[in-house]
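User: I'm new to structure prediction. If I give you an amino acid sequence, what do you actually give back? Let's try with this one:
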Amino acid sequence: MKRPWLVAVVLAAILAGCTTQADHHAEYQSAFKRPLLSPGAAFGALPPVVQHTVIAEAGAEVIWEVVKDNKSGKTVYIIYFENQDIYPPLYVGSDGSVLNPDLTVAVQRPADTTGATTVKLTDLPPKVLEVIHEQASRSDVGAVYRATWGNKTVYIVTFKDDTHYPKLYVDAEGNLLKDVQY
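Assistant: Good question. You get back a string of structure tokens that encode the predicted 3D arrangement of the chain. For your 182 residues, that looks like this:
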């Protein structure tokens, strides 16, 4: 007679323990309430023309945050960098132009890269790489674009130190183009 009663008490204790444990988990409140966004995902969501400008201006600098602003009546992307002492916020218009904080144009997007695609240095033909190293071996490349001019493929190379190293225009055969008219 004691056994059915003992089984009932053990069963009730087990069931009570399960409900108490379930209630304990239901009371947990997370301190994290917003979805986590990565700067890389924010950069990847930028229009390609804006991405090109950011790469040309800051290279591989670590991005802290990307903000899209429409308050001025036009779309402006503000890119904040991790090292803000060296890289202040970069204002970029939707056309790829670099803007001043008052949204006036600081550097107009060059017309020669319109319709061009970004190319990695590792994807360049060897002869084009040779010309880049001959012309600017002491400067870091900012960005490389591939464009089609008529029936000719042209690589447009920009440098981080564009004051001392202006853009290079090199065709696919490794010929440095001078007196470029676009």
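You can read the tokens as a compact description of the fold. Here is one thing that stands out. Strands lie at 63-69, 76-81, 90-93, 98-99, 105-107, 117-118, 141-149, 152-159, 168-171.
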